[in-house]
């Protein structure tokens, strides 16, 4: 790494790619250095590639995926595709380790994280590039685990203001690759995580002076993160059916305490990208006919 800028720029680019797993040149530019020319980002990435730290592979992403995407009208953006990269030959950047899921899914997850990052910048709030963490492992015991597409850390409220709150979210991006029932089944898995308390083998039963075991998620989060199901589906029924399935699952198959404590929200991806995550494009599970901001209070 002798030619890598230890002062920050190269290291940030490498850290973002290692964490996000895959991104286009344009996405990387908007994540790490939107204030400079995109050619500078390209040269930075090319230098990291020459050092053997990152790799580039051909890719194309669907048209209408970027910041100019129209709001959802029941029609899927055309799949004709456009070049992924700007400022250099087309390609997607990644570290030497291939992503755990398909290229298209990884790029949409990155685009979703970028939407939150840009929204925070516009609003004067705090969400930095490394506050979007894909594929965080949360054990459930018996070799089972919950691995969300991303965990989001976000400070709501302008920097310097006394009135602010720290928000956390588990993010799942559904690209219409599973039916509504399978998507809603993820909700029951998160309810299991909410209740899961690891048991140490050989640990004696609680006594009067012994602190009781706590849920495992409390080791990482002061409050259980809200659940955001991003829906990249075709047509109005492609959006409506998953939302109704989430509603039915929350009503019938998970403990009421979980539903009361954890906001469960679902927006169409096109609306989120076009209007920004802070816009009222999110359908709450308890009232799916209405829309709110994802930052709405836990107890409306």
Please sum up the structure shown.
This protein is an alpha+beta fold. The protein has helices at 9-20, 25-32, 38-50, 103-123, 180-195, 235-252, 256-261, 269-275, and strands at residues 23-24, 54-57, 60-61, 82-83, 92-95, 132-134, 138-141, 144-146, 150-156, 165-174, 226-231, 264-266, 283-284. The protein folds into two domains: 9-100, Winged helix-like DNA-binding domain superfamily/Winged helix DNA-binding domain (Arc Repressor Mutant, subunit A, Orthogonal Bundle), CATH 1.10.10.10; 133-284.
What would the keywords be for this entry?
single chain; 300 residues; alpha+beta; Arc Repressor Mutant, subunit A; 6-stranded mixed beta sheet; 3-stranded antiparallel beta sheet; 8 helices; 13 strands; globular
Which strand-content bin applies to the residues?
15-25%
Q: Given the C-alpha coordinates, what overall shape results?
A: globular
Strand arrangement across the biggest beta sheet: 6-9-10-11-12-13
Number of domains: 2
Structural features, described:
The protein is of the alpha+beta class and 300 residues long. It folds into 2 domains: 9-100, Arc Repressor Mutant, subunit A (Orthogonal Bundle), CATH 1.10.10.10; 133-284. Helices cover 34% and strands 17% of the residues. The chain contains 8 helices and 13 strands. A 6-stranded mixed β-sheet has the order 6-9-10-11-12-13, with helices on both faces. Strands 1-5-2 form a 3-stranded antiparallel β-sheet. Strand 10, helix 5 and strand 11 (226-231) form a beta-alpha-beta unit. Helix 2 packs across helix 3. The longest helix has 21 residues, at 103-123. It is globular and about 55 Å long. It starts with 8 loop residues before the first helix and ends in a 16-residue tail after the last strand. The model is unreliable at 62-87 (pLDDT under 50).
């Amino acid at each position: 790494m002798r030619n890598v800028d230890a002062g920050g720029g190269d290291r940030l680019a490498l850290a973002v790619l290692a964490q996000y797993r895959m991104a286009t040149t344009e996405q990387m530019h908007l994540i790490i250095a939107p204030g400079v020319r995109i050619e500078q980002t390209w040269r930075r990435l090319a230098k990291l590639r020459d050092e053997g730290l990152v790799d580039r592979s051909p890719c194309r992403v669907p048209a209408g995926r970027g910041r100019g995407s129209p709001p959802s009208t029941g029609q899927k953006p055309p799949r004709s595709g456009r070049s992924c990269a700007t400022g250099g030959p087309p390609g997607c950047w990644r570290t030497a380790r291939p992503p755990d899921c398909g290229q298209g899914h990884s790029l949409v997850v990155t685009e979703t994280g970028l939407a939150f990052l840009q929204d925070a910048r516009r609003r004067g709030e705090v969400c930095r590039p490394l506050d979007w963490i894909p594929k965080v492992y949360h054990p459930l015991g018996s070799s089972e685990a919950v691995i969300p597409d991303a965990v989001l850390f976000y400070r709501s409220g302008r920097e310097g203001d006394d009135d602010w709150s720290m928000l956390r979210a588990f993010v799942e991006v559904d690209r219409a690759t599973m039916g509504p029932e399978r998507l809603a089944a993820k909700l029951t898995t998160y309810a299991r995580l909410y209740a899961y308390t690891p048991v140490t083998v050989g640990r004696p039963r609680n006594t009067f002076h012994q602190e009781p075991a706590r849920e495992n998620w409390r080791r990482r989060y002061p409050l259980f993160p809200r659940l955001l199901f991003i829906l990249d589906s075709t047509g109005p029924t492609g959006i409506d059916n998953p939302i109704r399935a989430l509603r039915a699952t929350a009503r019938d198959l998970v403990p009421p305490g979980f539903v009361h404590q954890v906001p469960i929200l679902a927006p169409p991806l096109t609306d989120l990208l076009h209007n920004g995550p802070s816009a009222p494009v999110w359908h709450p599970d308890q009232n799916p006919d209405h829309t709110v901001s994802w930052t709405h209070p836990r107890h409306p």
